[in-house]
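Lecture 7, part 2: worked example. A protein chain together with manganese (III) ion.
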Amino acid sequence: MFVLPKLPYSYDALEPYIDAQTMEIHYTKHHQAYIDNLNKALEGHEALQDKPLIDILRALPTLPEGIRTAVRNNGGGHFNHTFFWTLMRKGGGGAPRGQVADALTKQFGDLKMVQNQFNTAAKSVFGSGWAWLVVDAQGKLQIITTANQDSPVSMGLSPIMGLDVWEHAYYLKYQNRRVDYITAWWNVIDWDQVEENYRQLI
Ligand code: MN3
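Predicted complex, written out as structure tokens:
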């Protein structure tokens, strides 16, 4: 059975950029619902229940057809949110450091250019989805988007940073102003975690 991982900070830790009420509902209701629905989908599939979620998501086409969509949506939702919480912290923001900073500079120019390209991607998601910074099979950084709860790992990509742009992530505070939420998010990003994610892949 999959369970809700502990949130590494309090609900109000990311104020004023992400409000406590959004954080609490997002974590206790939305994330929990993905987990509950994933567990329900895997009932009676003991072999899958024992597998790491990342391995299940990497092999979606091999799943029984009857549960494939439910696992894609809810397994993806659980995986993406678990990853997302770790990317933020109180007093975050600033500039990237370390090897990921070097790689970003080499590939995109400066931080402003990274942010511009990432913001453009995040804005462009029609409906619900995510923007990601991923490492591809060749070890190159890419900025991509996914729809719904599709995870980059299902596409053979390794995410090192990602932003939830579903309305549930920002609507209480920002209403329809997704751009304001995206812009504010750079103040809570934990670049040390992004660096750690990157170093695990290279
Ligand atoms: Mn969400």
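The mean pLDDT is 97. The radius of gyration is 17 Å. Keep this in mind for problem set question 3.
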